[in-house]
Design a protein that fits this description.
- The chain has 213 residues and is of the alpha/beta class.
- Helices cover 49% and strands 14% of the residues.
- It has eight helices and six strands; from the N terminus they run E-H-E-H-H-E-H-H-E-H-H-E-H-E.
- The protein has a six-stranded parallel beta sheet with strand order 2-3-1-4-5-6, with helices on both faces.
- The longest helix has 24 residues.
- The protein starts with 5 loop residues before the first strand and ends with a strand.
């Protein structure tokens, strides 16, 4: 674990990535970087009218994520050498590929590519894989009003976008963990099982997968 300085916890909407990142940061005395999306004025509008608001939403997320990484990720804290984030910058490219029209996406990728290569790469990227059925249960449970009419096909397309992205990753380790049988929010033993799966491993570039019982 000594070489694990930048850990990313990712997943689809409702996978529990923020909860897990927060708990790990508390246990490991790590710096926590959470995606700042709650105040995005385009997000509720996007869920109501995806065609109209997808482009301004993705541009605003791109700017917000870049500014946050510039401010927080690239400026390490003196007393906490480890950092845990509940998103990675490539999330912008994954989501935009599923929400934008072809001409909009080409323009978006030009902007994305300008900044991506200069950004730090994670020492380990963890993806929490959860079925669409269970994602919808989690979304209903947490009760954000603008998410309650979430289209299952949208969640499916985002999931496919992540897996298409993983096939291209060679610069850092990606660990895909199937957590469908776990409830690490309510059950401490499930959380500990997940924590050990992340920390007690040798990280090598490329993609690996595990299913936890």
């Amino acid at each position: 674990m000594d070489d694990l300085r930048f850990l990313v916890i990712e997943g689809n909407i409702g996978a529990g990535k923020t909860t897990l990142a927060t708990r790990l940061s508390e246990d490991l005395n790590a710096r926590l970087v959470l995606e700042q999306f709650a105040d995005n004025p385009f997000l509720p509008k996007f869920y109501a009218d995806k065609e109209k608001y997808s482009f301004p939403l993705e541009l605003s997320f791109l700017a917000d994520r870049y500014n946050q990484i510039n401010k927080e990720v690239l400026q390490p804290e003196l007393f906490r050498s480890m950092m845990i984030s509940d998103y990675y910058f490539t999330k912008s490219a994954i989501f935009s590929a599923n929400t934008l029209q072809e001409d909009e996406y080409r323009l978006f990728r030009r902007l994305f590519n300008i900044v991506f290569e200069s950004l730090p790469k994670p020492d380990l990227y963890v993806y929490l894989h959860v079925s669409v059925e269970n994602l919808l249960k989690n979304i209903r449970k947490r009760g954000r009003e603008y998410e309650q009419q979430m289209d299952p096909l949208y969640l499916e397309s985002i999931q496919q976008g992540y897996f298409e992205y993983f096939r291209q990753v060679t610069q850092f380790p990606v660990l895909i963990i199937d957590t469908n049988k776990l409830d690490f929010v309510e059950h401490q033993e499930d959380y500990q099982l997940l924590k050990q799966a992340i920390l007690n491993r040798e990280n090598r570039s490329g993609v690996s997968r595990i299913i936890l019982p």
